[in-house]
Amino acid sequence: MSDFYERAAAICGSTADGILWPYDASGIDRALRKTDPERYEQQLAFLSAKRKALVNWAETYGLKASTVQCCPAWLTRKVSRRCERNQCTQYGSNDVDRAWLDHTICWLKDSRPAAITSAPYSLHDEDLQRIAWWSQQDPRLASRRGTGWYGYGTTQILIWRTDRVLEMEPHPGVTQQP
Predict the structure, then answer these.
(1) pTM (predicted TM-score)
(2) Are residues 139 and 111 in the same domain?
(3) Quick one: how far is CA 36 from the chain centroid?
(4) What is the 3-state secondary structure (H, E, C) of 161-177?
(5) Integer CA distances (angstroms), 98 to 37, 48, 70, 130, in order
(6) Whole domain around residue 111: which residue ranges?
């Protein structure tokens, strides 16, 4: 096993089939290998860059990907568990955070909720207001935005618990893109 594989498994988890990559880095269309080998190689290079960026970023802060996907209320908890369906602001009936929580990854530090990254394709004033609203609701929450590893014109939103990780920065971005 390669060093990178072991590092990625520690961050994302693994099964006998391989690394449990989040949707952001889960794979590419393997049919391109035969139909368009050049495009396949471009996408493979971009996927590899995204995976390396994700692992390096998570290691910088001592984070592990959570299997739980939820809204920022998850960050306010002592343990990693989803909201009740009717309370979640991403997946519940009150889904006011759904738009900016596209391509969400919830992150743990020492097995406790620590950060959420998302990668929406667009951000509107109401999205920015909601992100700011979360920090107003709990003084332990902070947020930043940047380019991130997802690509395709998205913006990475990072919201985190400052009592678990004092300072965080979004990933500066991956430049290789098909």
Answers:
(1) 0.91
(2) yes
(3) 29
(4) ECCCCCCCCCCCCCCCC
(5) 36, 28, 10, 11
(6) 65-161
Q: 88 and 131 share a domain?
A: yes
Going by C-alpha positions, the residue among 155, 99, 106 that lies closest to residue 127 is 99
Check if the beta carbon of residue 168 is closer than 8 Å to that of residue 61.
yes
Per-residue pLDDT tens over the stretch 113-129: 999 999 999 999 999 99
- Same domain for 9 and 76? no
What distances in angstroms separate CA 106 from CA 32, 67, 115, 118, 134, one per listed residue?
Answer: 31, 8, 6, 9, 16
pLDDT at 178: 54
For 56-75, write each residue's pLDDT tens digit.
999 999 999 999 888 899 99
Task: Indicate if 88 and 134 belong to the same structural domain.
Answer: yes
When divided into structural domains, the chain yields a total of 2
Residue 139: pLDDT band by 50, 70, 90 thresholds?
A: very high
Confidence of residue 176 (pLDDT cuts 50, 70, 90): low
